[in-house]
């Protein structure tokens, strides 16, 4: 194998660094403006802050009751992920192992549901949710996340499970294992790469989602972080200093989460494509 370092490799590395820096530009604007006054942000948003105002973080923490919004976001994200993993992994396993027209039709419906825009069904969704008593309820919001997230998750699990050797499951059945035992004792432990992939993708989506919690949670006590932060940007009053400080606080947990688990999503995608 020829490992010679060429000029083309050098150019590609420079291009990759330039693209990476380009993607970091928004983070630069958020970080430097989170410690400015609102007047200085409006004067020159790109300038480095002359006076660092750390008090912005304390003010937004108190003003938005951030611990409460943070715990609401944690609760919704964790339980939505748990439910999606349990439901989607079992559904993907059954659809992958069951051959027939009904199985193919159900899988096709799951795939078709992935392309339906949320905006086209949000009004009927809110009306139906209100009639079922799901509005102003965090469990109701989690239940709706099950419906919206299950299509992609089933698609990913289905593709991964097709690569799991069937002989392993047959051996377990011969030893007297029940169908649930086969899945939870044999199959599910083998799904760790794709489970981590699904968790990461769903966490990024649910944690940052604004529209669905905005429609479902009218009570301010139940607001998640994105919805709580919208109070800083009214029609005639936009508190950019507090809003950007709140954005830093709100995105910090998800950034740390992504950095710690990014290798798992690469493994999951690579394993799924290989299988």
In short:
The protein has 13 helices and no strands. With 275 residues, the chain is mainly alpha-helical. The mean pLDDT is 85.
General description of the model:
It is built from 13 helices and no strands. It is mainly alpha-helical and 275 residues long. It has one domain (58-274): Orthogonal Bundle (MetI-like fold). Helix 4 (66-97) packs antiparallel against helix 5, helix 4 crosses helix 10 (192-208) and helix 8 crosses helix 9 (179-187).
Largest sheet: none
CATH-derived architecture: Orthogonal Bundle
Question: How many domains comprise the coordinates?
Answer: 1
Structural class by SSE content: mainly alpha
Return the average pLDDT rounded to an integer.
Answer: 85
CATH fold topology: MetI-like fold
Radius of gyration: 23 Å
**Would you list the SSEs in sequence order as H and E?**
HHHHHHHHHHHHH
Low-confidence residue ranges: none
Number of strands: 0
CATH superfamily: MetI-like
Distance between the termini: 26 Å
Number of helical segments? 13
Write the layout of secondary structure elements.
Layout: H1 7-33, H2 38-43, H3 55-63, H4 66-97, H5 101-113, H6 122-131, H7 138-161, H8 166-174, H9 179-187, H10 192-208, H11 211-216, H12 225-229, H13 240-274
């Amino acid at each position: 194998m020829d490992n010679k370092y060429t000029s083309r490799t050098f150019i590609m590395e420079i291009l990759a660094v330039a693209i990476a820096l380009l993607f970091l530009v928004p983070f630069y604007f958020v970080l430097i403006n989170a410690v400015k006054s609102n007047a200085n942000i409006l004067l020159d948003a790109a300038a480095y802050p002359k006076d660092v105002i750390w008090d912005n973080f304390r003010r937004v923490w108190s003003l938005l009751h951030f611990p409460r919004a943070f715990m609401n976001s944690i609760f919704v994200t964790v339980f939505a992920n748990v439910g999606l993993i349990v439901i989607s992994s079992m559904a993907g396993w059954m659809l992958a192992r069951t051959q027939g027209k009904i199985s193919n039709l159900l899988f096709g419906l799951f795939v078709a549901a992935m392309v339906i825009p949320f905006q086209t069904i949000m009004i009927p969704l809110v009306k139906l949710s209100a009639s079922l008593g799901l509005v102003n309820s965090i469990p109701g919001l989690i239940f709706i996340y099950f419906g919206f997230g299950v299509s992609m998750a089933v698609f990913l699990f289905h593709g991964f499970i097709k690569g799991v050797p069937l002989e392993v499951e047959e051996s377990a059945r011969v030893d007297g294992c029940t169908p649930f035992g086969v899945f939870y004792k044999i199959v599910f432990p083998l799904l760790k790469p794709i489970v981590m992939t699904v968790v990461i993708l769903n966490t990024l989506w649910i944690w940052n989602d604004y529209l669905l919690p905005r429609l479902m949670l009218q009570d301010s006590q139940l607001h998640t972080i994105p919805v709580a932060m919208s109070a800083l940007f009214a029609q005639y009053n936009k508190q950019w200093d507090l809003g950007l400080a709140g954005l830093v606080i709100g995105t910090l947990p998800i950034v740390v989460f992504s950095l710690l688990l990014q290798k798992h999503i690469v493994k999951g995608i690579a394993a799924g494509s290989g299988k």
